[in-house]
Amino acid sequence: MQKEINMLYINKQFIGKATLYSLFFLFFFNSCQNKKEVNISIKKFKTIAISKKDYGSGAINLYTSEGSSSYLINYNKDLKEIRLINIYTNKTDKIPISDSINFRMIYVKNLDTIILISKQENKITIVNAKGKVLSEYHINLSFKSTEYNISAVTPNQISLKGNYLYINCFPKNDKKKKAYFAHYFNLFLNLKDSSAGIVPLTYPSIYSLYDHWWGGLGNKLTQCVNNKSEIVYSFAMCDSLFIWDGKTIKSYLVERSKYLTHFPPEIFDNKQAMNSRYVIEYQRKSPRYANIKYDIEKKLYYRVIAHRQELKNKQGENNLNYDRSWSVQIIDTNLKVIDEVYFKPEKYNYVDFSVTEKGFCVSRHYDDSDSLIYWDFFKVVKL
Fold first, then answer.
1. Fewest Cβ atoms nearer than 10 Å: which of 118, 139, 165, 195?
2. Burial class (CB in 10 A: 0-12, 13-18, 19+), 139
3. What is the pTM of this model?
4. What's the mean per-residue pLDDT of the chain?
């Protein structure tokens, strides 16, 4: 069943009597007075090895079912199948995917509702555990004479709240202009009734101070859903976290990562946009907030920070983007940073960061000669 979705308005239920951008900057040392100090213990407790042949293309996602079975999920493009790798048994389940479905990203609601997203086609396809297509949606959204496309390419750019799927989007016009940040960044799709529209939220006001977008890095944002069913947004070049309850969005000033200096990064020289060496070096040297996850069991946020990196390592070899050092801020429900854990460079791929029922996991670096890919699992315990 294919649905063409054309929306020229914002769904009224998302506006209502909402104040679209009420900003409240809270200083957490005041809000947390007289509260017991929380300490955190983080310890690696498990490593699993996965055959590289079970890996495919695109970002890795981790899904935990209601029965507490956890799967690493990826797409093997060559074999046209989704791989679900059980992290406890290493058993791999395979879901065949039709050649006619073009997608880049997978998001799992449950094993009978697997959401396939194509940024290129602005299309969302839902299949079941047997690969049968349940529904398809072509997203054609326009608001105030601006067309919007899906921009999500990794699972952390999507949230699922009840039957509503929230996906990062971008305006087709006004690219590389200051006006870009005045546009909306999220769209929604109701999986129950197929309604869709633009979420009435724009980039943080601090972004209006800049007439550039940090070579494309600045428009990156990630999102998650907390235990109150609120959507939490983290922007690459902003210390604050933004929480939306469906009517009002509030900005909370969070303590800056101790590894972010000279932040936000220097301006990208647009005259050098065609200079590949300059572009690569700029991306290496520009630190940013790279991810936000929520641990619903422990009621903690994990915010991943990609650190500044030099173009070459000590041996004079070119660094890769994933070689950089990085850290994870552990943030409580009052949005107070209670710890920040450092990970040295050239060991882990910070992009493959997922929440588990005990804490979080992340993949190790690997190269072409490796036959196995290792994932380390970390237990997070409140003391």
1. 195
2. buried
3. 0.86
4. 82
